[in-house]
């Protein structure tokens, strides 16, 4: 689950940075206006993005079968979290999120997860408020990749990052990174996930962290990250429209 939004340094070495190509919209001040766009936008994306359409329909059916639980999320927001965790959709979605912020045009023309991005962002924000804006301290072992970071730098994951908080015991064969992450914008989504036991705290792409420790020894690395707040390049981008003033693409 921990597939970082980072710049590749070598085949199995990755660099943590600010992930500046990430689409990081927080939709501040435009939630209701954006929600009004969703019926038309979602219908368009269902036609252009079959994996999303299939995951959404499967998640919606499963959420409906659960009945109306006590939840701060709307049915659409809860369905978005469940769809994100369905059939590996998170991998394709996060790959798109990592590139969609290269330009407004890239987001508008080539990012066919606008509905999911909005609803997932809103879901994390609403859950965070409902839980009292708590912070989490998490350990996670990543096998197969050694991450590179510079102490004192500010970095972002640049995608919706899930950390289970369950440190894998022992050493990995080959390259390995032990992450020690203190997040204040991540939220526990296990209740809403397709397979709750496989998911933990989901961190949004716009949360920033200071690298407070970076120890490397051969193929092994220990990186400690501490939340410093948020940073977004984009806000309410869809509602700004394209060059003709039309927000539907």
Automatic annotation (TrEMBL):
Pfam families in alphabetical order: ART
A GO biological-process term: response to antibiotic
Cellular component, GO, one term: extracellular space
Keywords attached to this entry: Disulfide bond, Glycosyltransferase, NAD, NADP, Nucleotidyltransferase, Signal, Transferase
Domain of life: Eukaryota
Top EC class, one word: transferase
PANTHER family for this protein: ADP-RIBOSYLTRANSFERASE (PTHR10339), GPI-LINKED NAD(P)(+)--ARGININE ADP-RIBOSYLTRANSFERASE 1 (PTHR10339:SF19)
Protein name: NAD(P)(+)--arginine ADP-ribosyltransferase
């Amino acid at each position: 689950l921990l597939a970082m939004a980072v710049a590749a340094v070598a085949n199995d070495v990755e660099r943590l940075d600010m992930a500046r190509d990430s689409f990081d919209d927080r939709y501040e001040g435009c939630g209701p206006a954006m929600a009004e766009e969703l019926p038309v936008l979602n219908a368009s994306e269902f036609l252009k993005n079959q994996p999303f359409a299939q995951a959404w329909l499967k998640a919606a059916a499963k959420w409906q079968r659960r009945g109306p639980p006590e939840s701060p999320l709307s049915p659409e927001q809860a369905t978005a979290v469940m769809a994100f965790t369905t059939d590996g959709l998170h991998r394709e979605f996060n790959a798109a999120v990592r590139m969609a912020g290269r330009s407004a045009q890239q987001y508008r023309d080539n990012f066919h997860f606008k509905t999911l991005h909005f609803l997932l962002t809103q879901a994390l924000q609403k859950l965070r408020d409902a839980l009292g804006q708590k912070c989490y301290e998490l350990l996670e072992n990543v096998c197969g990749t050694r991450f590179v970071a510079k102490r004192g730098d500010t970095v972002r994951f640049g995608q919706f990052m899930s950390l289970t908080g369950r440190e894998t015991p022992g050493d990995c064969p080959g390259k390995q990174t032990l992450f020690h992450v203190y997040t204040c914008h991540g939220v526990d989504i296990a209740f809403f996930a397709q397979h709750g036991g496989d998911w933990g705290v989901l961190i949004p792409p716009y949360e920033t962290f200071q690298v407070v420790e970076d120890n490397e020894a051969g193929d092994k690395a220990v990186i400690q990250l501490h939340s410093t707040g948020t940073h977004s390049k984009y806000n309410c981008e869809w509602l700004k429209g394209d060059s003709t003033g039309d927000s539907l693409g």
